[in-house]
Amino acid sequence: MFLRNDQGLELAGGGASRTPPGLAASAPRGPAPASLLARLHAAVLDATHDVDWVPDLGSQIGSRQWWRGLGTLGGLIAAAWVLSPGLDRPLVGAVPAPLAGTAWEETRAQGIAPLAWGADTGRRMAASDLVAPLAEAPERPQVELSATLGEGDALDRVLVRAGVGRTDARAAAELIGQTTDIDSIAPGTRIALTLGRRPNRTVARPLDKLAMRARFDLNVTLNRAGDGLALTRQPIAIDATPLRIQGLVGSSLYRSARAAGVPARIVETYIKALATRLSIGRDVHAADTFDLIVERERAATGEVRLGKLLFAGIDQSRRAVQLVRWQQGNGDDDGADGDHPAWFDANGQAERHGTMGMPVAGRITSSFGLRMHPLLGFMRMHKGLDIGAPYGAPIYAVLDGTVQSAGRSGGYGNFVKLAHPAGLASGYGHMSRIAVARGQHVRQGQVIGYVGSTGLSTGPHLHWEVWRNGQTINPRSISFATTQTLSGPERRRFRNWVAGLLSVRVDHAG
Prior knowledge:
By secondary structure, the chain is α+β, with helices and mostly antiparallel strands.
């Protein structure tokens, strides 16, 4: 055998070891110092290989391993404390030398200067003899801006605030008023304006161009034509197909309809309509299917506008409720644009159930029945209810009816009597002012007068009296149910309207 560190033997042709002449072989005398350090290092590694110097201090508290970990932590903290530079001595770092002279000017010319320096950048040159000073800076030949019509604002005032002269603002409002009612323009409508060149700064810029959406189906543009303005109409095609949405009631009729994309106000109207025929909490179940149809207008420009609820239906396993919004006697094919429409079923019948509400906002100060009269001082039958309310508070009709009398009536003071269907009548006394006339037809909730203290009265209040077939009754005991039935030509129009609604295919709100 031979050693690789023997010089020249790897390249020799022979395989036997030879000792040079004159040299005797000698045995090794022990390991070199480097070998002792290596063995010591290996021994230390072997001894500490299985030692966990950083154990979890949250477990085995009090054991040798835990104390060893605590010692390691203490040693690391001590080493960090010893090696730290201290909190009161700043760290010294390299700071670039500040720019000065030519280097500073070059850097400033090529950079974006802060506003504190005037935001001036680039190289500067002194003015020559060809530079003529200006008395004032020139204005732009045209200024383009936009304005927004606010709630309760007027179009001409919006234009004046935007910088349009009063003459041009009035002329623009008059031209746009030829296409639509100015007051009906939707709040939030944006107006694009272009103002032209003015002769001097003391006058307003002339209106060169105005563009806005006057109606949902109409854009208008005003352009300067000589000394006046010319109006250009741009009609927008509208698709008036109603929106029909169906879905399962699930755990909540309201939440399911909202999740299907129906606006909150439509859902509320839908639930109120169904409540006239069934109990929402008791009769409506999770497996039922709601069905509603809403007015919808879709413009060719992409906007969508939803209107009133036209149809309210719910399909149950045992029956189907279908209610249609219809104004009796309006004679229109759509049947949905009356002031006081009712909900008719598919057969043309409308039912109404309820009790009389309070005609004025207040509290009952004297009930129906025998009582000691506060002014006459003896027991007397009180034929109605006294409702205390502030002087001048509005008094409302409790039901639809016709004014039988309106004027002064002895101890009742200013008094109004209404005749209602089914032999009912109601009276309202002690008014400060009467708001209706004899023979006038009034709707439920319409103001018929105002609270006062006329006649035999100790203070501002309303005396409310109700008769049935001429006999006085307690107003709080009245409950009623009325039925309206369509017939003749109106019934035929109603059936055609219902057939058209039911032919609308199911869609999604968009």
